[in-house]
Amino acid sequence: MATTRTFLVLFSLACSLTLCICDDESNYGGGEGNLFPGFYRSSCPKAEEIVRSVVAQAVAKEARMAASLMRLHFHDCFVQGCDGSLLLDSSGSIVTEKGSNPNSNSARGFDVVDQIKAALENECPGTVSCADLLTLAARDSSVLTGGPSWMVPLGRRDSRSASLSGSNNNIPAPNNTFNTILSRFNNQGLDLTDLVALSGSHTIGFSRCTSFRQRLYNQSGNGSPDITLEQSYATNLRQRCPPSGGDQNLSELDINSAGKFDNSYFKNLIENMGLLNSDQVLFSSNEESSELVKTYAEDQEEFFEQFAESMIKMGNLSPLTGSSGEIRKNCRKINS
């Protein structure tokens, strides 16, 4: 118990060491619509503290949760913008995005989102959106695992709809080609630098066997493995991911430091030890992307700075603001 308390205190201190971005609307020069870091300063001044506390407790209980929460934010923003649509369960005319190919049996952390929302509703009912709490949770997940921090522009509202087709079509798949992945990022207003930097989030977390089996046994449909995959690494992966069965078996996205947010991921790519095809193509399929991989592998600080910048940029995708959308009382369903 004492260790957990010490962990939470240190985390709170770490979160105060953010990038220097002003926290009020008049001084904030970036953002989208009416988003700015100090949005809840008067209406719910403890909002960020509450999110930070619940996320810290969840990650202290299960380290993997940091990557899971960050992934929820990615998958939310790539569908209808960062509007909390991913969090909705099926109800009435709403067909949940949780059942899409990228999310089914994979997306997790919804119970932690529920805990955060309940704590926020207890402190300041009907004030903080699910879209905002998810954006804050992603930032806090980075800090908790040793990654960068940044001031999060806030003021998003929640959608009253979801898009199963958008989830299936917009989110890059593990076996996509480089050009397909870049195209899906470009469609969201994100560029090649954002793609490489944001992919660096795979320095933490795990992936299921079903997401990388093709590389081990049938990369090009001819019954042969991916020749770009380092052989001893491939042999190790086959022990946990057989040709059939074991779909849910997990392997680390970053074999060297799966629980620490650092630049080891990029070093792995240079050694042909990226777990997913969508990881390795960043180094093997495009010269400009390859140079960025080398840069981030050599300079962790530059990676951290770009990751924070790209996370802010992604978090500003098509937000609902003003009178659009709503502030859900329960992140799983629209208000009556």
TrEMBL record:
<feature type="binding site">
    <location>
        <position position="203"/>
    </location>
    <ligand>
        <name>Ca(2+) 2</name>
    </ligand>
</feature>
<dbReference type="GO" id="GO:0006979">
    <property type="term" value="P:response to oxidative stress"/>
</dbReference>
<keyword id="KW-0732">Signal</keyword>
<feature type="binding site">
    <location>
        <position position="83"/>
    </location>
    <ligand>
        <name>Ca(2+) 1</name>
    </ligand>
</feature>
<feature type="disulfide bond">
    <location>
        <begin position="77"/>
        <end position="82"/>
    </location>
</feature>
<keyword id="KW-0408">Iron</keyword>
<feature type="signal peptide">
    <location>
        <begin position="1"/>
        <end position="22"/>
    </location>
</feature>
<keyword id="KW-0964">Secreted</keyword>
<dbReference type="GO" id="GO:0005576">
    <property type="term" value="C:extracellular region"/>
</dbReference>
<dbReference type="InterPro" id="IPR019793">
    <property type="entry name" value="Peroxidases_heam-ligand_BS"/>
</dbReference>
<dbReference type="InterPro" id="IPR010255">
    <property type="entry name" value="Haem_peroxidase_sf"/>
</dbReference>
<keyword id="KW-0560">Oxidoreductase</keyword>
<keyword id="KW-0479">Metal-binding</keyword>
<feature type="binding site">
    <location>
        <position position="262"/>
    </location>
    <ligand>
        <name>Ca(2+) 2</name>
    </ligand>
</feature>
<feature type="disulfide bond">
    <location>
        <begin position="130"/>
        <end position="331"/>
    </location>
</feature>
<keyword id="KW-1015">Disulfide bond</keyword>
<feature type="binding site" description="axial binding residue">
    <location>
        <position position="202"/>
    </location>
    <ligand>
        <name>heme b</name>
    </ligand>
</feature>
<feature type="binding site">
    <location>
        <position position="172"/>
    </location>
    <ligand>
        <name>substrate</name>
    </ligand>
</feature>
<protein>
    <recommendedName>
        <fullName>Peroxidase</fullName>
        <ecNumber>1.11.1.7</ecNumber>
    </recommendedName>
</protein>
<keyword id="KW-0575">Peroxidase</keyword>
<keyword id="KW-0325">Glycoprotein</keyword>
<comment type="similarity">
    <text>Belongs to the peroxidase family. Classical plant (class III) peroxidase subfamily.</text>
</comment>
<dbReference type="InterPro" id="IPR019794">
    <property type="entry name" value="Peroxidases_AS"/>
</dbReference>
<dbReference type="InterPro" id="IPR033905">
    <property type="entry name" value="Secretory_peroxidase"/>
</dbReference>
<feature type="binding site">
    <location>
        <position position="85"/>
    </location>
    <ligand>
        <name>Ca(2+) 1</name>
    </ligand>
</feature>
<feature type="binding site">
    <location>
        <position position="76"/>
    </location>
    <ligand>
        <name>Ca(2+) 1</name>
    </ligand>
</feature>
<feature type="site" description="Transition state stabilizer">
    <location>
        <position position="71"/>
    </location>
</feature>
<keyword id="KW-0349">Heme</keyword>
<dbReference type="GO" id="GO:0020037">
    <property type="term" value="F:heme binding"/>
</dbReference>
<feature type="binding site">
    <location>
        <position position="81"/>
    </location>
    <ligand>
        <name>Ca(2+) 1</name>
    </ligand>
</feature>
<keyword id="KW-0106">Calcium</keyword>
<feature type="disulfide bond">
    <location>
        <begin position="209"/>
        <end position="241"/>
    </location>
</feature>
<dbReference type="GO" id="GO:0046872">
    <property type="term" value="F:metal ion binding"/>
</dbReference>
<feature type="binding site">
    <location>
        <position position="79"/>
    </location>
    <ligand>
        <name>Ca(2+) 1</name>
    </ligand>
</feature>
<feature type="domain" description="Plant heme peroxidase family profile">
    <location>
        <begin position="34"/>
        <end position="335"/>
    </location>
</feature>
<dbReference type="GO" id="GO:0140825">
    <property type="term" value="F:lactoperoxidase activity"/>
</dbReference>
<dbReference type="InterPro" id="IPR002016">
    <property type="entry name" value="Haem_peroxidase"/>
</dbReference>
<dbReference type="Pfam" id="PF00141">
    <property type="entry name" value="peroxidase"/>
</dbReference>
<feature type="binding site">
    <location>
        <position position="254"/>
    </location>
    <ligand>
        <name>Ca(2+) 2</name>
    </ligand>
</feature>
<comment type="function">
    <text>Removal of H(2)O(2), oxidation of toxic reductants, biosynthesis and degradation of lignin, suberization, auxin catabolism, response to environmental stresses such as wounding, pathogen attack and oxidative stress. These functions might be dependent on each isozyme/isoform in each plant tissue.</text>
</comment>
<feature type="active site" description="Proton acceptor">
    <location>
        <position position="75"/>
    </location>
</feature>
<dbReference type="InterPro" id="IPR000823">
    <property type="entry name" value="Peroxidase_pln"/>
</dbReference>
